[in-house]
Every structure is written in C-alpha cells, then in structure tokens.
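Handoff note, outgoing to incoming analyst
You'll be picking up this chain. Sequence as last confirmed:
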Amino acid sequence: MTDRDRDRDPGAAADTTDVSDGAGADIAGAAGSDIAGAAGSGRPVGGEVVPATAFVIGLLGAVGFVLAYLLGANTQLLGLGVFVMMGGVGVGMVSWAQRYMTPSRPDVEPRGRIASTEEDITAFTADFNIGEYELVRRSLLTKLMLGAFGALGLAAVVPFASLGPRPDQSFTRTRWRKGVRLVDAEGQPIRASSVNTDALITVFPDGDVGDEFAQAVLIGLQPGRLDPVPGRESWTPENLGAFSKICTHVGCPVGLFERQTGELLCPCHQSTFELYRACEHVFGPAATPLPQLPLGIDGLGYVIAEGDFSSPPGPAFWNQRREP
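Most recent structure output, in case you need it:
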C-alpha cells in the first residue's frame, strides 16, 4: 500500500502507522487516530483564540478611531487607531486562513488524464478540507469578523463629517434686500448727494459691515456713459452704480478703478471689467461679469438696495444657480 493509499484509508493507516509527537501527531490526526476531532475529521479542534482576539482588537481599534475623531484628537492618535484597526482585521483573516483553510502537508500528484474519477474527486475534497485545526466555533469567528468589518466601515464613513454642512442658498444669496441701506466701512449710511462722479466707495448692507460675501463697490457714474443691460435701466438712480467687489475669477477683492477708461481691475490676476458696459469682463482670467446691485433712493435721500445682486457673487467656477 502506497503513502497516498494510506492517506485515503484511515483504517489502514491506523493499523500501520506508529504515531509520535510533533509531525507524527498531525499525520495521526489526519488519519483518524486518538486525537480525532469532535466531527471525526482527524484534526485537533480549537485554535479560534488567535483570529478571535485579532478581530476583537481590530474592532476596538475602529471604535477608538471613531471616538478619537469625534473628540478632536490629533493625527497621531487617529493614525494609531487606523494601525490597530487594520492590523487586527488583517491578522484575523490571515490566521483564519492558515488554521482552517490550509492543508497541513503538501500533496503532489503526477499529471495524468484530464477527466477525474469519482475516487479522485472524493480524495480531493477530503484533502482540501484537511487543515491544521477543526473549526468548531465558526459562528463566533464569523460574527467577530463581520463586527470588525462593520466597525472598519464606520471608521471610514465618519471622516465625511469634516466636509461640513450641506451647501444651501446661503452660497447663492446675500443679505441685500429691498429697502436695505448701503453703509460704508464705518457703518454710516450714504446719501446719494454725497457721492461725487468717479468716486468709489466700498459698501455693505446696513447691519452687516464687513460681510465679505455681500461687499460691493458704489461708484459715481459719468452721466450718459453707461450702456445698461436691458431691464436694468432703473438700477442706477442719479448716476449711481453698484457692483459686487468679489472677482469672478477666484474671489479676490476688485478695488482698483481707472477713471479715464472706466475699468475696474482685480490686483490678484489682473482681471479687468468695463464699468460702463455693466462690468463685462474685457481682460484677464475671469470669464463672467461682476454681478450688479439694483439701487434706489429712499425718502431721506439715502442710497438703498432694491434687491439682491443680479447673479450670485463669487468665482464663476462655483457654477452657482440661484433658486427662485
């Protein structure tokens, strides 16, 4: 009888094999000796401690990562949590595979016919199922593995909270409303009669001085020079015009004004806007005009807004669309 025949015939192997410690015990276990497992496969039972412990460590690492993130921990603690989490899950999977899915001895078979007999199929199935240990607490390990993977997924999702709140209409609307007065940097309301021709004043909504998103430039226009956009003829009472001060390129403040040419210039990247053509872009990387603010004058002679900007202020690459 060959060695392979003895491997396939536990009874014959039990009669002819002298079992000893070490490697002999493994062979005897596979052959059905006195160390036979509870399922009668010949393998020692148990061995779940290592993968189970690893999965628990991975789960605790994931929980620690989430807690450290929520408590605002530094990156070192977050990195330690990732190390423990990934290491525990990895060790658990590898130890599981080595103990329960790897044959305890090599099996060499010469190449022969293509088709397999029923005997060969049965022998292959038996050899494939031979591992170092008999898995008797599969349910526990499966639950621990799923728990570790679930905690791993939670740890991967939690950092999305750093993206901040969901954008809403606050990115497309400013605090300009009908009847809101224009005030200067000191919060003083501006009378229409106090703005000279070619004068440029940085203005804000009354009560929101310093609002970078709503800041605008108020300019005394030269009479008869403005070419208004159709529908905006009434937006420049007493030759006063106002436009967003935020460049439509990357959001720098447009603060330079050339009176002779009537051009507003952004000092960051030299984007240039032609004031008397409703601040159309004429030079530089900006691609869209500066939004215009509709103006009015109240009963006391103060300059007021008649609504919000003609379009959302800010860089054009935001591709913002204001909802009605």
